[in-house]
């Protein structure tokens, strides 16, 4: 463990620490930011009356819209001269929000990413190739500072240019690759199509640090098999800090939340009620140690579940389940609620399909129509039409039986859906344009 004191802290002690830090953070936001002060006053919440974790229920929520309304620096709680960096998020949906960091905040950011890397088994002996984008997006610089903090030789290659990624993996002896899961698959495809001579399994590559978008267990299996690596999930959001809010460990069953820095709650997205541990809902974050840009009860829109188990890795930190989607990414098709990741799971169960797909939702008259364009494996595509048609029928049936929707399935040629170097664009919702 990178920081055993906090990562293996007994539960009661953690609660005590969180209470202390919450008091500090709520007061910090209230005293040093006019927007929070107005918001707390308007809802009748007085931070000096905050006595126990149960009091969280009385604290008003912060939404993405609040952040947008305060663009660019309206949520800062320190003088601008103390802010040493900004990042910005387009979010998975919607407009930009800006987050600032003091140098202490950057230290915390690097610490939680170093903890994440260490929980995947990386050490200062590793060579970390950071193929997340560098820039306003938190992925590149976030992984970079975390890698350096752990002592890895950190290679700031940024996203894209697959040929160069492969060259550096070989020449530098890269052992850890950080990128989105869709880019990892993109690399696997590239190798298959363009570089059959390059045997990635003979390189030193052993760990994938994959996140920034939802991905399924089936996708993990595929990435691990094709690239010959152990693929681990890393989760985070810019508003809270960036990557490193939570991370998987060797158990690969849920991500430990670094709850000495981020206080988490699960709420019902419709009513805002806090749900008991173990129930699925929207995860809400409160920063416990952030100076420049505190977030107080930030509604992430990410859907997950929180639970404690006795993890084989020895960490006592609460776990969050893989994020299956966002409450605002949820597609409602003829009344049925569906997340893109569920569609992906169905597709991955059908042999002959590739994990490259696009969901197009449209409305003709009063009814929603969904078309799923899915790539088929090369070997099947060259088969007779009869084979393709029976594959198509099989998918249509799976959609009907498992998801309860009738979808138009279009099988497309291998490599015909645009590949991403960052987050994949899975859904085109034409209804929003109407
Ligand atoms: O995506 C931070 C990040 C960078 C995480 C690199 C991991 C690796 P944003 O651009 O602000 O920040 O987008 C945050 O992306 O609310 C989730 O909906 C989604 N997301 C991030 N990580 C995961 C993940 C970065 N591991 C939004 N699984 C979040 C599922 C994820 N969704």
Query: What is the CATH H-level superfamily of the largest domain?
Result: ANL, N-terminal domain
Mean pLDDT comes to: 92
* Associated small molecules: 5'-O-[hydroxy(phenylacetyl)phosphoryl]adenosine
CATH architecture of the largest domain: 3-Layer(aba) Sandwich
Indicate the radius of gyration in whole angstroms.
Answer: 22 Å
Notes on the protein architecture:
This protein has about 425 residues and is an alpha/beta fold. The protein has 2 domains: about 1-325, ANL, N-terminal domain (Rossmann fold); about 330-434, GMP Synthetase, Chain A, domain 3. Helices cover about 35% and strands about 25% of the residues. It has 12 helices and 20 strands. Helix 5 (about 105-120) crosses helix 6, helix 8 (about 180-195) packs parallel to helix 9 and helix 10 (about 340-350) crosses helix 12 (about 385-405). The protein is globular. The model has no long low-confidence stretch (mean pLDDT about 90). It binds 5'-O-[hydroxy(phenylacetyl)phosphoryl]adenosine.
Short key terms for the protein model shown above:
GMP Synthetase, Chain A, domain 3, Rossmann fold, twelve-stranded mixed beta sheet, 12 helices, 25% strand, 33% helix, 434 residues
Q: How are the SSEs placed, and which strands pair?
A:
Blueprint: H1 4-7, H2 11-32, H3 34-43, H4 64-69, E1 85-89, E2 97-101, H5 103-119, E3 127-130, H6 138-150, E4 153-155, H7 162-173, E5 176-179, H8 181-194, E6 207-211, H9 217-227, E7 230-237, E8 242-248, E9 255-257, E10 262-267, E11 280-287, E12 298-307, E13 319-320, E14 325-326, E15 331-333, E16 336-338, H10 340-349, E17 353-364, E18 367-376, H11 378-381, H12 385-403, E19 408-412, E20 427-429
Parallel strand pairs: 3-4, 3-5, 5-6, 6-7, 17-20, 18-19
Antiparallel strand pairs: 1-2, 7-8, 8-9, 9-13, 10-11, 11-12, 12-13, 12-14, 15-16, 17-18
The structure holds 5'-O-[hydroxy(phenylacetyl)phosphoryl]adenosine.
